[in-house]
Amino acid sequence: MIPRYLVDVQLDGLPVIEKDVIVIGAGIAGLFTAIRASEHNSVLMITKKSLLDSNTRYAQGGIAAVISDEDSPAYHRQDTLIAGAGLCSNEAVEVLVHEGPKGVRSLIQMGTQFDLENGEFALTKEGAHSQRRILHANGDATGFEIVRALSENAVANPKIEVWDDHFVIDLVTQDGECCGAIVQKPGGQRLFVKGKATILCSGGAGQLYRYTTNPDVATGDGIAMAYRAGAYIRDVEFVQFHPTALCYPGAPRFLISEAVRGEGAVLRNIKGERFMERYHEQLELAPRDVVARAIVSEMEETKSTFVYIDITHESAEMVKHRFPTIYEYCLRYGLDLTSDWIPVAPAMHYMMGGVKTDLNGETNIKRLFACGEVSSTGVHGANRLASNSLSEAIVFGRRIVKRINDLPPLDVEPSLQFESERMTAPIQAVVERRLKLQKIMVRYAGLRRDAKGLAKGLEELKRQLPIYQSILTEREEYEFANLLTCALLTSEAALRREESRGAHYREDFPARDDLMWRRHSVLHRLHGLTEERIEDV
Q1: CA distance from start to end of the chain
Q2: What is the rounded CA–CA span in Å between residue 445 and residue 130?
Q3: Which of 7, 8, 43, 40 has the alpha carbon at shortest distance from 26?
Q4: Which end of the chain is more exposed for a tag (fewer CB within 10 A), N or C?
Q5: How far does Cα 160 stand from its chain's mean position?
Q6: Of 252, 274, 272, nearest to 261 (Cα)?
Q7: In Å, what is the CA distance from 105 to each residue of 122, 136, 306, 362, 500?
Q8: Domain FAD-dependent oxidoreductase 2 FAD-binding, which positions (predicted)?
Q9: What are phi and psi of 390, to 5 degrees?
Q10: Residues in contact with 489: Cβ distance below 8 Å, sequence separation at least 6, in sequence order
């Protein structure tokens, strides 16, 4: 079993820092929530790298909200529910589609500059959206613009203290209530940060897979520490692979946004044939999981490691204006988006599941909240609709802050209980172990899964369990322990779900089975894996 704490420390031996609100992570969820919370609270924001290192920064497409007169919350709701393949929470989706526009206005007040056309917001359409409702910034650098505006805001705010290069090891709980966290400073010293509310905004677990569009920091820390603390972890078998990441020697897996296909790009196999009509009537704009599996099938059939995305039939001016970041990035590697077909392949992109919360972002542990990709609010179901992630972070960030403002001060004196003393030496060769774990996940718990492979993957992952009895001291060791936790949870939930739905595809159960499986997978450290039926509306 995974132990309650990753390290053995005596709380009374640690220096204590007290703040009203502790925010762990610095993407859009962390920044936005910290800024809103600072209106009535002192806030400490902890990030293991820096304010500019998060998944948000790489979000190209944009943020989905009902802005246009032709659009309506009912349309946005329907698109989200269809993409979510029967697993969305109706209430959470209602909250998202009705409160999204307010959230966008808050971002604008905080200094975000979205692209305009003739004085109106320039709205685009992405896969599986029925209307144009995606706001973007600088063409395809939306995330970067939001992070720029919010981090300038946060840094200038006297009520927000930012700790860069600090690692949160564990959440401290007492009698079902979260009291704060154990944090390691850059030099290795540890301290106890105490607060009336702790908000996990630590992003997803993209580093579970060898090929990912996520930054190196996405190691599932928040999900793993919440699991150890006794939070419910829901639907982590649903991992979204982005169909089109740049696949070129020497280049990182850089995202070639869905919006490129939204603006007319087509996919071709290495023989130059357009192939999506063989897989789905929506062609290149089919849901992401369909497009990603179609690409893998074509790669297998043509014995190739990539397919091409081709937008060369559009005018060079349009392509450069609409996708300046992607255009510039490809040029670095000698690829010209306006005249070349660009080699792409699927890469892990987003985790639909996470720490289960209610509609105010609160977990089953009092005073512990989760926001953004680390959370499972019920909005995304089995497959996230493009550009709903940024809106979700803002909408639920606002709700979390409202709830926190009503919380009484913390009056608990926590103490730590250790199951057993750690005996073994620190772990060796973390880099190799991490690569091995990523290869296991790609091979057995990737885009296409089956019982035999998942069972084999779990068996191989379990050989790494002794790490939890080792003395861990370095950030890389904590990250590996957290990745291993997430890998075990994802594989276990994927093995249990004997159907195909959304981003979870089982070759041995290729059909969706609503009678048996229209339910959530819920994992808990003490109760194991249980299921939660969906109440029909």
Answers
A1: 38
A2: 31
A3: 43
A4: C
A5: 24
A6: 274
A7: 15, 14, 40, 24, 38
A8: 20-390
A9: -65, -40
A10: 223, 227, 233, 236, 523
Give me the DSSP letters along 59-113.
Answer: --S-EE---STT--HHHHHHHHHHHTTT-S-HHHHHHHHHHHHHHHHHHHHTT--
Look at the chain and count its residues. Answer: 537
Catalytic residue among 36, 288, 293, 398: 288
Q: Which residues of 261-271 are buried (b: 16+ CB within 10 A; e: fewer)?
A: bbbebbbbbbe
Burial class of residue 126 in the structure, from the number of CB atoms within 10 Å of its CB (0-12 exposed, 13-18 middle, 19+ buried): buried
Residue 208, φ and ψ in degrees, nearest 5: -65, -25
How far is the C-alpha of 310 from the C-alpha of 514, rounded, in Å? 37
Q: What domains, with CATH codes, occur in the chain?
A: 1-238+352-407+425-537 (3.50.50.60), 241-348 (3.90.700.10)
In the block, tokens 């981003």 appear at 503
**pLDDT tens track, the chain, 537 positions:** 899 999 988 898 899 999 999 999 988 999 999 999 999 999 999 999 887 666 666 666 689 999 999 999 999 999 999 999 999 999 999 999 999 999 999 999 999 999 999 999 999 877 788 899 999 998 778 888 999 999 999 999 999 999 999 999 999 999 999 999 999 999 999 999 999 999 999 999 999 999 998 888 999 999 999 999 999 999 999 999 999 999 999 888 888 988 899 889 999 999 999 999 999 999 998 877 889 999 999 999 999 999 999 999 999 999 999 999 899 999 999 999 999 999 999 999 999 999 999 999 999 999 999 999 999 999 999 999 888 999 999 999 999 999 999 999 998 889 887 766 787 777 778 999 999 999 999 999 999 999 999 999 999 999 999 999 999 999 999 999 999 999 999 999 999 999 999 999 999 999 999 999 999 999 999 999 998 887 654
- 422 and 469 Cβ atoms separated by less than 8 Å: yes
State the residue for tokens 């420390």.
Answer: 9
Q: How far apart are CA 502 and CA 383, in angstroms?
A: 5
| Beta carbons within 8 Å of 119's beta carbon, 6+ residues apart | none
Q: How far apart are CA 233 and CA 130, in angstroms?
A: 31
Q: Which residues pair with 351 in a beta bridge?
A: 239
Q: Is 288 a catalytic residue?
A: yes
Residue whose pair of structure tokens reads 């789905």 in the numeric block: 280
Task: Give the pairing of strands 266-268 and 307-310.
Answer: antiparallel
Joined together, the tokens standing for residue 252 give: 């990182």
Tokens standing for residue 102: 């307010």
If DSSP codes are grouped into helix, strand and coil, which group holds residue 465? helix
Please report the DSSP string for 387-430 in residue order: THHHHHHHHHHHHHHHHHHTPPPP--------SS---BPPP--H
